[in-house]
Amino acid sequence: MDYTHEILTAMVDRYERRKGTSAQNGKPQRAVTFDLAKYYPIYRDHLSEEEQAIDDAVTRLSSWQMVAAPRSAQGYYTKITLRLDHIQEIYEFLGRKPAQETRQEQLHWMPRDKTRILSPAASPES
Question: Alpha-carbon distance 59 to 75, whole Å?
Fold first, then answer.
């Protein structure tokens, strides 16, 4: 399983959900954190291959500077934080566009005259 993409996707989804609400309130963007043990209870199983795969994924993301990931005193990652100063690189790595950009593109392709969509008189059968 590719935990690298899965972790980043979950964090970017959370970032996008928060982005609109903080902009509306005029408040600065809060840090986006991810609790590994909460989302992956297997991460606490220190003998499993899955735990090692998760740990390796976080190590890669941290080395690519996409997340900040301090280790606990026991040597395990606990909460990791999305590096918002690298958000554009993160979108590119995931092969996705920011939700706001996607919405703007969708609006561009919508018909300009909404009455044509809503009005039965404008249908071609009439």
Answer: 12
